[in-house]
Amino acid sequence: MIKKILLSGIIITCIWQAQASASSVAGTVEKGNRLYHGQQYEDASKCYDQALAQQPDSAIINFDAGTAQYKTKEYQKANSSFEQSLTTEDKGLEAKANYNLGNSKYMLGLSKENTELSIAVQLLEGALNNYTRAQELTPKDEDVKVNYKIVQEKLKELKEKLKQQPQEDRKQRTEDGKQNQEKKEAEGQQAQQEQQKTEDKELKNEKTEELKNESSREQEQSALAQPPEPKEMSKEEANMLLEGYRQEENATGMLKDDRKGTEEKVLKDW
Length: 270
Description:
The protein is an all-alpha fold. It has 8 helices and no strands. Among the domains are: 61 residues, Tetratricopeptide repeat domain (Serine Threonine Protein Phosphatase 5, Tetratricopeptide repeat), CATH 1.25.40.10; 86 residues. The radius of gyration is 55 Å and the shape is elongated.
């Protein structure tokens, strides 16, 4: 009996908690809706994110989140939210989700036209598929038909642009190649000029060094050619020199006769 009472109390508690949680989510979504209608789209988006944190698989909350994200131009996020809302069994909600998803894909595609053209084409093709599904669910919806034609015309334009892209790419590659070749040639010429400058500088340094060496050699040769400065002789050296003169005179007899056998006085007295 005690076990039954405890079990009963647990069931009641769990039911109450589930009801409180559902009430909290509903209040958050309702607040988000008020903010959305007041054109406070960023704040509305935050409320929907809070609600999704508790019920991430809710088709209607994902749909609401997608509408707010579309208004803040977060088209990639809006695409994901609308994709999640397509899991609904409510055909009316599914039709609206496809319609909004087509619009979001179209806007995202336009943003990529000048940067990722092939992806832009894929997005617009996807948008047409979503419009087709929305039209199947709501054949009398004129807005779907209007948007389908608009996207269809834009898709033709992008496909034609995509066909011309290879020619433009080849032309651009040719121009880039030409510019690269010119750049390489200019760099080569500059390198040659720098090399020539280096060689000229080295040659100039060699010539300068050679001139210095030549000047040094000339100075040395000049120094060798000049007779050494006379050194003063000592008295003994003078006497020896005079004696040598006498010996030379006696040996050859080529000097004057008056010097023969006569001792000459030393001119300088030390």
